[in-house]
Amino acid sequence: MATQPLAGSLHTTLHRQGRHIRPDAILTQVALVFLSLLFMVPFFWLITTSLKFDAQLFVWPPVWIPVPPNWDNYVQGLTFFPFLAYLRNTLTICLLAVVGAVFSTSMIAYGLARIPWPGRNVLFVIILGTMMLPGQVTIIPLFIIFKHLGWINTYKPLIVPHFFIGAFYVFLLRQFLMTIPTELSDAARIDGANELGIFLKVILPLVRPALATIGLFQFLNSWNDFLGPLIYLTDSDRYTLSLGLAMFKGQYGSYWGQMMAVTTVMTIPIIILFFFTQRTFIQGITLTGIKG
Questions:
Q1: pLDDT tens digit string along 40-63?
Q2: Is the N end or the C end of the chain the one with fewer CB atoms within 10 Å?
Q3: Residues 6+ positions from 16 with CB-CB distance below 8 Å
Q4: Cβ atoms within 10 Å, residue 78
Q5: Contact 20/234 with Cβ under 8 angstroms?
Q6: d(CA 205, CA 72)
Q7: Within a domain: 25
Q8: Mind listing the pLDDT tens digit for each residue in 61-114?
Q9: What's the Cα-to-Cα distance from 220 to each of 34, 54, 153, 163, 246, rounded to whole Å?
Q10: How far, in Å, CA of 74 to CA of 262, rounded?
């Protein structure tokens, strides 16, 4: 049969290239494919639900692929609230929060990892200890502080705190900085560079993967943040996309199709961003010591 020469040719090619396909490798690939498909089911359900008519939402057995698709959900969902204005508000908060997180974390982590001074390890332990404090505990004290500062109904409570370090980001970047040889800093000092010059010209170019990871984490956190804007923003013109999604669920009913359509639109930029930055993101994670 024609398949036998083809199989023989494939076996000969693999043998010449020194490649041997082991059964455990095949099982591993099959398991990874199965798990990938399993994790894609919620996203597939999100997309199909965004294309369903109301009569197809809660029927049994469920409708996996709606025929015909209801594209009006996207039109009605994107016009239900000022989507472009809320998108602009969300991007403003995200970008400024990323700048604040990267700016503050890089300097604090550098001071804790590369500059020897008494008590730096104690301070690092205290910073890590703040990670054990639930965020819900600090909601009321922070709200009182921001109220006395006159920051309620502004973006400052959602942006300014990120300029004063995050404990997890400091830990992430400090672990990365500890892997950089100190001989590089010593050589720069011999050449006459001060501490600021070493930080800007020697260290920062080497920690770009870790900084990109921190920026991506912060962007995702600010993009998906619902509680912060809900507490501090009172004017609907300042709302973010997360608050806009809450408008689809009212007291007497919910617009599930339109909500899923807008959620799909909000998810697509995150997926695109991850695909463009996945190499840097994975490199930053594997080189910071978090891999265990």
A1: 888 888 888 888 888 888 888 888
A2: C
A3: none
A4: 15
A5: no
A6: 48
A7: yes
A8: 888 888 888 888 888 888 888 889 999 999 999 999 999 999 999 989 998 888
A9: 27, 31, 22, 17, 19
A10: 7
